[in-house]
Every structure is written in structure tokens, then in C-alpha cells.
Amino acid sequence: MRPDPEALAWMMRASEADKAEFVAAMSKQERNAWRWVWRVWARDSQLPPEESWRTWLILAGRGFGKTRAGAEWVRAVAERDPAARIALVAANLGEARAIMVEGESGLRRIGTPGQRPAFESSLRRLTWSNGAQAMLYSAAEPEALRGPQHSHARRTGPEGGIRQRSSLAARWAGTLRH
């Protein structure tokens, strides 16, 4: 379910009675789907900038929702673009898997259960049903990013998350170290 931005704006300013009428008109399946619509639950500061950007830095403290914001951005890219090839870069591969893939806000835990990506741990690859893919990388091995072509990248670490769009930026992200 893709939320209509105008419908979301309407919900933000609607009265409680109007909201109740709106929800009552939904099927059970539609009501259950709202649980997985990030734009409904996210704070504005957790959503990517609306204007064109190359680097998005979230510099915030513990509990802000940096991991969830990054995972939701990756999910949106993958669901929107079947040709997406996304680099997921963490301090090491264990952290990439434990936090970015399998963690509470990881890619295998967010989104509608039937639309979550398959994870092939031996290949360090997530694959969505539409064909989009994400590969895990360690920032300790920046040379691993040489060669593969990526349309997007996400970097996570204690200093916040960086997300880029270009393959050149994806290679740059891998060189960042703690």
C-alpha cells in the first residue's frame, strides 16, 4: 500500500470524527496495512529531504530512530526501483547483518511481512521480490566496494547514517571509518 501524500496531509488536519469515519470505511486488510506505512508513523526529521540530494546525514543521539529511518529509505528505494543495487556499509559485516538486516529496525523486520526481502547470508545479499538487491559491506574493507555497480548506498555507524545516490558516492561511503 503506497500512501497518497495528500491523504496523509488530510489525516494530519482531520477531526477525530472524520478519522474514525475514514477508518470505518476501510477493509480489515487496509487497516492492517497502515501499520507498515512508515510515512504515517515517522517524524518529519526521520524522512529523507524532499528536494534532490546526494548525501543525507542524520546526526542524532540514541533512540532517535536513525536505523529505522535508514532501513525505511532503503526499503522505499528497493520497492520503487526493481533495478536498484544498494550498498549497505557498516563498521563490519557482523554489525551490518545484526543491525541493518536482522535487528529490531532491520530490513527483514520492517515492512509488510509478505514483501520483506530474502537474505542470502553466504552472498551477503538481500533480494526483494521485484528484483532489487542490497549487498552488505564492511567499512574495514573499502576495496570490496571497487567493481560492483551500485545505484544507492547506506552507511551506518555511531555518528549517524549517510545515504548516497550515485555509485561514486557508494564507493566513497565505504572509505569512511570510525
Which tags fit this structure?
about 180 residues; alpha/beta; Rossmann fold; 2 domains; 7-stranded mixed beta sheet; 7 strands; about 15% strand; disordered C terminus
Please explain how this structure is put together.
The longest helix has 15 residues. It is built from seven helices and seven strands. Strands 1-7-6-2-5-4-3 form a seven-stranded mixed β-sheet, with helices on both faces. With 178 residues, it is an alpha/beta fold. It is elongated and about 55 Å long. It has two domains: 37 residues, no CATH class; 123 residues, Rossmann fold.
In short:
Helix content is 34%, strand content 17%.
How is the secondary structure organized here?
Elements: H1 5-13, H2 16-24, H3 28-33, H4 38-41, E1 55-58, H5 66-80, E2 85-90, H6 93-101, E3 118-120, E4 125-127, E5 133-138, E6 152-155, E7 161-164, H7 167-175
